[in-house]
Amino acid sequence: MAKLIKERRLQDDAWKVVNLVDGKAPIDVCLPVGPLLVPVAVWKAKKACLIHREYEHGTPLGIWLAPEDDLAEIAADIDDFTVIAVHFPKFADGRGYSTARLLRERYGYDGELRAFGDIGRDQLFFLNRVGFDAFVIGEGKSAEDALAAFDDFPESYQGDAVQPLPLFRRRAA
Amino acid sequence: MYRYDDYDHAIVKARVAQFRGQTERYLAGRLSDNEFRPLRLQNGLYIQRHGPMLRLAVPYGLLSARQLRKFADIARRYDRGFGHFTTRHNLQLNWVKLAEVPDILAELAEEELHAIQTSGNCIRNVTTDHFAGIAADEIADPRPWAELLRQWSSFHPEFAYLPRKFKVAISGAEEDRAAIQVHDLGLQLVSNEAGEIGFRVHAGGGLGRTPLLGPVVREFLPWQHLLTYTEALVRVFNRHGRRDNAYKARIKILVKALGREEFSRQVEAEWAQLKDGPATLTAAEVARVSAQFAAPAYEILAADDLCHLTHLREDKAFARWVERNVQAHKVPGYAAVTLSLKKPAVGFNSAPGDATSEQMEAAADLAERYSFGEIRVSHEQNLILADVPQRELYTIWHRAKAAGLASPTVGLIQDLIACPGGDFCALANARSLPVAAAIQERFEDLDYQHDIGELELNISGCMNSCGHHHLGAIGILGVDKNGEEWYQVTLGGRQGNRARIGEVIGRAFAAAEVPDVVERLIGAYLAHRHADERFIDTFDRIGIEIFRTAAYLPKPAQKRRVANG
Questions:
Q1: What is the pTM of this model?
Q2: CB count in 10 Å sphere of residue B181
Q3: Tell me: the pLDDT tens digits for B340-352?
Q4: Lesser CB count within 10 Å: N end or C end of chain A?
């Protein structure tokens, strides 16, 4: 079971990531038992089925977003999700940082917001600041090491998910 | 100038510690090259021809004498006793050792200096007018706004992994001396009909392989909204800028693809959601930062100092230096002095913009004694003493001469801009420095230079255009043709309010031909100019063809002419 960083400690992760399979329509993707993070296309194709699982079996709902996904497509459903995960195919692709801020600030999402993919210690501080509160550290990188990154900086100039007021609004006081 | 408080100190120190940890993990093999690369770049550290190159930030070009001394000291102890000032106000050290960089940064942090975001795909050092605060044509001082943007952009959590680098320039004067139209974001301070301060916003300008002038995306942005609007604009870039091709990843490509109106619409839509949020600037914060850029305690002086006038009359060499290197100041009796870093190259490895540790210290001495302890770096790669009483000019000239900082050629051909090129830079296709040196040598004669008059000649060693060749009246670009170094010439570029991208004249030249070509172009100008017409004015009047013909003539079209000769 993959390790998840949440609440500044390592936890077991019960969620499985469902991927699209080449040559298979989203409607035909199999849904294993347990809590799932599904791609947007699967969510749209199998929404009724997924909601049924939640209703009948109490299986919480989750979705994962690719960097290019349009949030408007899931805007109406956002409050249904227990976990929204944002994928970082490459750590240098910074679109997910904007995705996180939009989810938190624009869409008012207050469930678990998880970053996964090619992320590690050196991304964690900023990921945390833009609103992620759960992190699946990429393969080959140390999750223990990453725990230290929450304290990389004692202060930040901009407001963020951790401290909404920018420094200049606190400095004066 | 802006002085750090406890918060600023804590943030910069934390960065040093963070980078020390990253460097240690890299050296211990726990971070791969690929993982370390963007981290080191965001701290100004490149791996270059001779090893690591460290680019130190000079935020909006302003340094205290103490800080310049620190640069001199670092260059002496950790490098080879010199540094290179760039077209974006920064200082580059070419021979540092990777393992020592954290120590260098720790020392710099003590003096409120750093290398934060001087490279990498993030928001870079904000640049501005080197005559900020002293120019008669100023609408508002751009430096407080540049500092507010520096703080806002430093470690912005959303924008550390942009599609590509993002450069901001800000001008507060009627004449743009900050090249705002060729920046990713160019801000022009303006005052509206009600007398309120705001910004005219240009976006999507840039040089490189697709040179474009940034169109206006908002005519008037009230000052309170500077940060929220900029955040919206950079977010649109972060989300929608191309990431599939590094050459098409700058914001200019996005603005061009969407069109100015659509880009502007998207930014406005994003901004509507951020507007009036917590990042909206307060009058108190603007006042806090502005107070640190208050005018120094100027003396009440006569507009003209009599001793100065006497020296001007009696010492021709001094008068020539004043004509080129001393600029007007809005306060009577004061002047700004440009210390030239463009002395003719000694050997081929000295770049325009290079300063030795001794020169930095000499400049720091002059700043301390005569210019309220501050010094500026211009985007033309010179140092500026901004607040000098006229009566001291003669002494300053002597001392600057002794330090090799008084070449009386500001704005003339010797004051050319050049990137470090293939001698230092791993990206370059061709060497810039031997070409720069050969041109400087060809036009060494001061009378000849003064006769030619103002001429912007810019050299880049590759398409990345660090030497801003597109903006030179004469631009020279190093290109690679089957593994050989060739040089393409552009004509008619200009910076400022009438900024324009130069036009390529035709096939490229071999290095050895370049000084002849430049001489023939200048010959054509001298043959056609009207009285007191600058090169660029003659070019605008007679067009490119005459110059093109001259450039490809087999031998010089014109003999040298001497002033009044």
A1: 0.94
A2: 27
A3: 999 765 544 678 8
A4: C
**What is the CATH classification number for the domain harbouring A157?**
3.20.20
Inspect the interface and report whether the beta carbons of A93 and B239 lie closer than 8 Å. no
Instruction: Name chain B contacts of A89, Cβ cutoff 8 Å.
Output: none
pLDDT tens-digit profile of B482-494?
Answer: 889 999 999 999 9
Cβ contact, residue pair A168, B243, below 8 Å: no
Give the Å distances, CA to CA, from B451 to B35, B205, B340, B446, B534. 54, 34, 19, 8, 10
HSE (side-chain half, CA atoms, 13 Å) at B296? 17
Strands B383-389, A36-39: parallel, antiparallel or unpaired by DSSP? Answer: unpaired
Q: What is the pLDDT of residue B51?
A: 75
Instruction: With CB atoms and an 8 Å threshold, state whether B285 touches A129.
Output: no
Distance from the A1 Cα atom to the nearest Cα atom in chain B, whole angstroms? 24
Return the CA Rg of chain B.
23
Residue A21: per-residue pLDDT: 87
For B135-291, CATH number out of 3.40.630.30, 1.10.1670.10, 3.30.413.10, 3.30.360.10 equals 3.30.413.10
Residues B375 and B79: beta-carbon distance below 8 Å: no
Q: Does domain B414-551 have CATH number 3.30.413.10?
A: yes
CATH node for B6-110: 3.90.480.20
* Chain A: closest CA distance from residue B351 (Å): 33
Write the burial class of residue A58 (CB in 10 Å: 0-12 exposed, 13-18 middle, 19+ buried).
exposed
Rounded Cα distance, B23 and A54, in Å: 47
Considering only CA atoms, which of B132, B149, B177 is closest in space to residue B379? B177
Q: Which of A126, A157, A168 sits opposite B282 (nearest CB)?
A: A168
Q: What percent of chain B has pLDDT over 90?
A: 88
Domain of A157 in residue numbering reads as 3-171
CB contact under 8 A, A95 and B273: no
Cβ of B160 and A94 within 8 Å? yes
**What's residue B296's pLDDT?**
96
> For the complex shown, is ipTM > 0.95?
yes
CB contact under 8 A, B22 and A171: no
CATH fold match for the domains B6-110 and B414-551? no
Q: Measured between beta carbons, which residues in chain B are less than 8 angstroms from residue A125?
A: 157
- Is B285 an 8 Å CB contact of chain A? yes
Whether pLDDT at B89 is above 80: yes
Domain boundaries, chain B: 6-110, 135-291, 306-411, 414-551
- Maximum alpha-carbon separation in chain A: 60
Mean pLDDT value of segment B305-316? 96
* B280 touching A (Cβ < 8 Å): no
Q: What does the buried/exposed string (b/e) look like for B278-287 if buried means 16 or more CB atoms within 10 Å of the residue's CB? A: ebbbeeebbe
B332 part of contact set with chain A, CB < 8 Å: no
pLDDT exceeds cutoff 80 at B565:
no
Q: Which tokens sit at B76?
A: 């002496």
CA distance A22 to B203: 40
- Output the six-digit token pair for B472: 């030179």
Question: Is B28 in the A-facing interface, judged by CB distances under 8 Å?
Answer: no
pLDDT at B346: 53
Yes or no, beta carbons of A157 and B11 under 8 Å apart:
yes
Alpha carbons B506 and B123: distance in angstroms, whole number: 36
Span between the terminal Cα atoms of chain B, in Å = 47
